[in-house]
Design brief:
By secondary structure, this protein is mainly α. Helix content is 43%, strand content 3%. Helix 2 (50-64) packs antiparallel against helix 4 (111-127), helix 2 crosses helix 5 and helix 3 crosses helix 5. The longest helix is centred in the middle third of the chain and has 17 residues, at 111-127. The protein binds protoporphyrin IX containing FE (HEM). Residues 67, 70-71, 73-74, 77, 108, 110, 176-178, 180, 185, 202-203, 205-207, 209-213, 216, 259, 282, 284 line the site of protoporphyrin IX containing FE (HEM).
Length: 340
Amino acid sequence: MAWRFVLFLFLSSLSATIAQPAQPATVGHHHRTVPPRLTLNYYAKTCPQFDQIVEDTVYNKQSTNPTTAAATLRLFFHDCMVDGCDASILISSTPTNTAERDQDINLSLAGDGFDVVTRIKNAVELACPNVVSCADILSVATRNLVKQVGGPFYQVQLGRKDGLVSMASHVEGNLATVNTSMDQMIEMFKEKGFTIEEMVALTGGGHTIGFSHCNQFSNRIFNYGSPSGVDPTLNPVFANRLKQICANYQANPTQAAFNDPMTPGTFDNMYFQNLRKGLGLLGTDQALMNDPRTKPIVNTFAANQSAFFDTFAQAMVKTSLVGVKTGKHGQVRVRCDRFN
Ligand code: HEM
């Protein structure tokens, strides 16, 4: 595939238990983080094979398709930020409803994330039909994939139900774009219950793997409003590489670059070390180095991988509890892409 070649070129050229009562309180479209009761052993009796099925499927999929981990981590994040972790991102549009996944920002979600969930769901439905939710599958698959590419392990609480609503119109305002200001980004994360430190850890964790299409950073390398035409916060050698990679991006919109040019397939703290050298790919990445509220956190994580891993793991547990539905507020879907 063309992008694999581009990525190859690029690489070679750069040498606890959280159980709380109550249903989620809803404020507008935002489900506040008051998690209902979930447990670690939710499927112990009803689907004892669940863990093993996820483990085997994820392992095989990531081994054959190394883009799966990043695809799934982004899918999980985009699901949880919009109407909570309820697998609403997996629902297909119908003639009468444009679903979340068809909102602009979600059109670039990579297929491997959807695919790994479908594979797990198919296997789980054979072993224990109508028991395991798509939302739980996505949460556990993400955790396993992060671990498989080198990231930290964390416990995932279970018992989420799948949501009954998936609307493209619910997305806006809940997911940052590359044009979102730092004030807005901090506010968005705060709304969901995250500290600035957790925001930095989550973003660094997300962007230490995977890739971004050229149109997401082309304004930094072509016709930027500076004498060189390039964003001055970008490392110049890196900027030149990106120009080569993206030379044709308008004709070929699949062109993409690694989010972490140094160790693109490994979950580590290299993203933060990169930011210190002007190797942040997206404008919002590099901005973390240029804001006094986030810069000290970047420096800490760049120097101390375990501090980053601890904060990331804790923030992922928190993410997995955003807007969770239980009981009659949701269902266990038979197919992840359709309501029952
Ligand atoms: C805070 C603001 C954030 C912004 C503005 C942002 C923006 C983006 C953009 C524009 C892309 C490239 C999409 C494409 O061109 O295909 C991307 C990729 C990605 N993002 Fe983020 N993101 C943010 C935070 C996060 C967080 C918190 C996570 C997860 C914890 C995350 C996980 C990912 C992953 C894994 C990819 C690579 C996807 C792949 O390779 O398939 N992002 N992000």
